[in-house]
UniProtKB/TrEMBL annotation:
Residues 9-90 form the Flavodoxin domain. PANTHER family: PROTOPORPHYRINOGEN IX DEHYDROGENASE [MENAQUINONE] (PTHR38030), PROTOPORPHYRINOGEN IX DEHYDROGENASE [QUINONE] (PTHR38030:SF2). This is Flavodoxin domain-containing protein. The chain crosses the membrane at residues 82-99. SUPFAM superfamilies: Flavoproteins. It comes from the Archaea.
Length: 157
């Protein structure tokens, strides 16, 4: 019996375009696993009939964008599977875990849907761009149902 194609919607907002670039890589990864992917700016979302709704926001002034917060409070997200991500600079100076968790917890707490995963990406600029592309592509594969490939982390307490 063949698996039905997983239908994924990616909803985003952006000011500078880096979130848009990241979403392109996520889409490529998901498509490589046979998913179908629609990408909509938060202002153009109409249909919510998808297996998974990935919702991503950059962080400005310690906050996810208001447009994304509004979207997450929509009543018609009830019972929908939602994957949340943020894009931000919080990776520097070891603040990542603490700050990123704060941003994501805020999004989850107001989300009317069923949050199935949360993650973060760095701004896709400078020397990190190439590595970012691989990370985002892998995330795309993962949300489409591919087995997770994580490097083993050694030496952490
Ligand atoms: C004015 C400004 C404020 C920002 N504030 C934060 C912040 O509070 N925390 C953070 O981690 N990143 C912050 N960033 C970094 C952005 O989240 C990052 O550049 C992101 O990639 C922007 O996404 P976009 O290009 O899709 O708009 C800020 C960037 C700018 C330009």
């Amino acid at each position: 019996m063949g698996r039905r194609m997983k239908r994924i919607l990616i909803v985003y907002d952006t000011k500078g375009g880096s979130t848009w670039e990241i979403i392109g890589w996520i889409r490529d990864g998901a498509i490589s696993q046979g998913a179908s992917v629609d990408i909509k700016s938060v202002r153009e979302v109409d249909n919510l009939d998808y297996d998974l709704i990935v919702t991503g926001s950059p962080i400005y002034g310690e906050q996810p964008m208001g447009s994304i917060i509004n979207f997450l409070t929509r009543d018609d997200l009830t019972n929908k599977n939602i994957a949340l991500f943020v894009v931000c600079f919080a990776g520097v100076f070891g603040l990542r875990n603490f700050m990123v968790r704060r941003y994501l917890d805020e999004m989850r707490s107001i989300c009317k849907g069923h949050v199935v995963s949360m993650t973060s990406f760095d701004a896709a600029t400078g020397p990190w761009r190439k590595l970012n592309r691989e990370i985002c592509y892998d995330y795309g594969r993962e949300i489409a149902g591919a087995p997770v490939r994580r490097p083993k982390v050694v030496g952490t307490a």
